[in-house]
Automatic annotation (TrEMBL):
A cellular-component GO term for this protein: mitochondrion
Entry keyword annotation includes Mitochondrion: yes
This protein's UniProt keywords: Coiled coil, Disulfide bond, Mitochondrion
Coiled coil residues, start to end: 55-82
Family as reported in the entry's similarity comment: Belongs to the CMC family.
Pfam families referenced in this protein's UniProt entry, alphabetically: Cmc1
InterPro entries, per the entry: Cyt_c_biogenesis_Cmc1-like
Protein name: COX assembly mitochondrial protein
Compartment annotation: Mitochondrion
């Protein structure tokens, strides 16, 4: 089973999606007997590749966010330790 075949959700696979949908239209009975199987395999591979690219981009973004959070926490700790040293004097 494949995800919904909307072109805007899968820009990397748009060409294969169009071919696959055309195959289903051109072969309404044959699609049940493997007429479009080669395109389905290509589509599955494309979806996997697209998912891998998205996963890698999300991972890189999360690393950036973690680094920003770490820097922010360090800054907050420095400010609070600086304020507490003034309070003790």
């Amino acid at each position: 089973m494949h995800p919904p075949l909307t072109l805007h959700r899968h820009p990397m696979c748009a060409e294969i999606i169009e071919q696959f949908q055309k195959c289903h239209l051109d072969h309404p009975i044959g699609k049940f007997f493997g007429q479009c199987t080669d395109l389905k395999i290509k589509l599955d591979r494309c979806f996997r590749q697209e998912k891998s690219v998205k996963r890698k981009a999300n991972f890189e973004e999360s690393k950036k966010l973690k680094e920003r959070l770490r820097a922010y926490k360090k800054e907050i700790d420095e400010v609070s330790s600086h304020e507490s040293s003034f309070g003790q004097a």
